[in-house]
Design goal:
homodimer; alpha/beta; Rossmann fold; 2 domains; seven-stranded mixed β-sheet; four-stranded parallel β-sheet; 12 helices; about 35% helix
Chain lengths: ~425, ~425
């Protein structure tokens, strides 16, 4: 009897380094042909699994795999799709097992954040209950860095580096023009619930006068008067003020600042945006000329600024997911365990999925400065390793070269099925 | 009699490479001690000259000069300050000559865009009329690339590279999630009057399916129906649509889209923003989930993505400004002359200031695709050299190191003076 096949799928928001995790996993699978057969990837994550849209990773050659490491986004596609419980949607779980059986899948590697680890756990439990032999391993990934039980989540280090470098660069621009132009600059970054991304900007704040002068965390309620007073004080001291604001900043009543909008003069939906809102506030209340940047997907796609550490972690969790699966681990997620801060030493480990599923790790209180507008020395010690190291992607004439990858579909064996959206 | 001193000032919006121009100039001045005495820099551009806030560049050592090349923004400060004509404000011109005389300035190097070249010309004319011996050289700088008579303006190549790379990266992210999440992504870039910056995104559009699918230029009036039809068509063909929009996009009546705002639910000023406006439009009219990024200062400060070509050009115009001054050129601006496209070969030249002052070079018609949403092959040929070459700045643990530069003030010799703001 030939070795069982394996299935890999990406889930949720993509990162600058998730394809490096895929690469690590693919290379590891290939080292064990006697125990692992083909490795398929779900097109668009779990959606492609449900709909039997699978990609045969065996068609990717060594050069293709090396190229994967240079590509942000999810090369096989990912999805935002909440797989409800087997009690609510038994037909979806039955379908998953049908697809697994049709393609002789014995290993399921699911690469995502907290929701995805929950899905992985449900799939594992369902397969066990039906007597289907399936090894399930979760692989961490999220720029939000809010997965518990792991030192960090691959993807975070690169967005952290992007935010720190961009803040530093824009701040030098603002500082050089502030005497006659923009006094206040606001960079809006991701992080709906946890302030990990915003906190990373604090890594370039070495002296009191260094940017960012103010960081706004979702973990701390936004108080307009305190904020405006801090801006006024900073401008008085340094001539300008650089602010990094998490998209998840909320007021005391828990309402997102970004949602305080409404409709514009034309009756169009006024899209949220913390930075434009803060910018209008500063301009109206303090009279300072203000500029705002919204990094949006630029931050999580910025492979050109990915940290080498993050790439190494991303590759390791893919590679070791295979190793742990072959060691008999099951219904666990691969983790990063820190051994020392400086130099940063780490190893992978695993943790039962039930200990990560649907749990969110916020920024610890000890990482937020007493005034609520910056990070502590403990935070710097913890975060600094994640952004370390250059690992520029290959460029041709200064630009990313054209991408041509053999993403070949696996022949379908089942009736068509459309997952409910 | 000792050699006359020289004065350098930066003007207008700063760039990722203007400090490299300063470096080229400082190094060139030092090679001619018999003909050029001290080199001073105006703190905050012409404002610092008027207010006798000068920096002695002689205190910068070789290591400091090398560091200059890694720093975005203007290291001596720049300003947004429109120096009115000598007829309107004779006292300002008289003050400039007082400062020049007090510090024995015989050479004035002014580094800026179209307005600045106009100022340089006025200063030259005024000095001549008063019999003050002054050699004036303009040095080009503007991310907008709208200076005439030069192949490009240093600063442009780096923002062009930033926009092209960022578009490509974010587009890979969007493409990988589009089947269940964001369908349309909009990146707003600078360029109030000219579409050079937006056009650069077109460099990564190699095949029909490649991003950006639509570029919106200030040179072409925005027509809502045509735009929405193009977005709908693109999503139908490729599943997603990536748009790069210049901040200067205007409707048929000439009104900036970014100014179509008003006040929000709280009566606060609704800051403009082409991307949020287009995003609301797409969401309301087409129902596609849409994301928008506003790069703002991030784009012009992105030294980490500066092109090597741009850095070389920036250094050359600084260096050769000194060379031309010593050759007896006066009231001219240094230019870049293209000798060949591929490989890109160039040399510097000069042009009378009167031929550049207050003239704006828009994107040529021949560079805009017939449908108005992309660039032509001629544009690609012209633009490609500017973004070529990696030149990453020095980092420590993945981040820009702390900056400590000896920016030492020159002792004042005149009564205090405050320039009218």
């Amino acid at each position: 009897m030939p070795a069982p096949n394996a299935l890999y799928a990406q889930s949720g928001g993509v990162t600058a380094v998730i394809n490096t995790t895929a690469r690590g996993l693919i290379e590891a699978v290939r080292r064990h042909p006697a125990r692992l057969g083909r490795l398929y990837a779900g097109r668009d994550g779990i959606l492609g699994v449900l709909e039997e849209r699978l990609i045969d990773t065996g068609r990717l050659g060594a050069e293709d795999l090396a190229l994967l490491g240079d590509l942000p986004g999810g090369v096989f596609g990912s999805c935002r799709y909440k797989l409800r419980s087997p009690e609510e949607r038994p037909e979806l779980y039955a379908r998953l097992l049908d697809v697994f059986a049709a393609h002789r899948i014995g290993y399921f590697f699911y690469n995502g954040g907290g929701d995805s680890q929950d899905t992985a756990q449900k799939v594992a439990a369902y397969a066990a209950a039906r007597g289907y032999p399936l090894v399930v391993l979760g692989i961490p990934k999220t720029i939000d860095n809010d997965l518990p039980e792991t030192d960090c989540s691959p993807g975070y280090g690169s967005v952290a580096r992007y935010v720190a470098v961009s803040t530093w660069e824009a701040a030098r621009d603002v500082a050089s023009m502030a005497s006659s132009s923009t006094r206040v600059f606001i960079l809006e970054v991701m992080g709906r619930h946890a302030g990990w991304i915003a906190a990373a900007a604090g890594l370039v704040h070495r002296r009191a006068e260094d940017p960012p002068h103010l960081i706004l965390f979702p973990e701390r309620p936004f108080v307009e008067e305190t904020f405006l007073a801090a801006v006024r004080r900073t401008v008085a001291s340094y001539g300008h003020c650089v602010i990094v604001a998490s998209e998840g900043v909320r007021d005391k009543s828990g309402r997102f600042l970004a949602e305080a909008g409404g409709r514009d003069a034309f009756g169009h939906t006024q899209l949220g945006g913390v930075a434009p809102r803060l910018s209008a506030l500063v301009q109206d209340k303090l009279g300072f000329k203000c500029h705002a940047a919204v990094a949006d997907y630029l931050q999580r796609a910025a492979r050109h600024l990915a940290s080498r550490t993050d790439l190494e972690l991303a590759r390791a969790v893919g590679r070791d997911a295979v190793r742990y699966a072959l060691l008999g681990r099951h219904a666990e997620m691969v983790t990063i365990e820190r051994l020392s801060d400086r130099p940063y030493r780490w190893r992978t480990g695993t943790v039962p999925l039930e200990r990560v599923a649907n749990r969110e790790r916020l920024l610890p209180e000890a990482f937020i400065r007493a005034d609520g507008f910056g990070i502590t020395a403990a935070a710097r010690r913890h975060l600094a390793p994640f952004v370390a190291g250059d690992a520029p992607p290959h460029t041709v004439d200064g630009l990313p070269p054209p991408v041509r990858l053999p993403l070949v579909a696996v022949r379908r064996r089942l009736e068509p099925f459309t997952a409910p959206r």
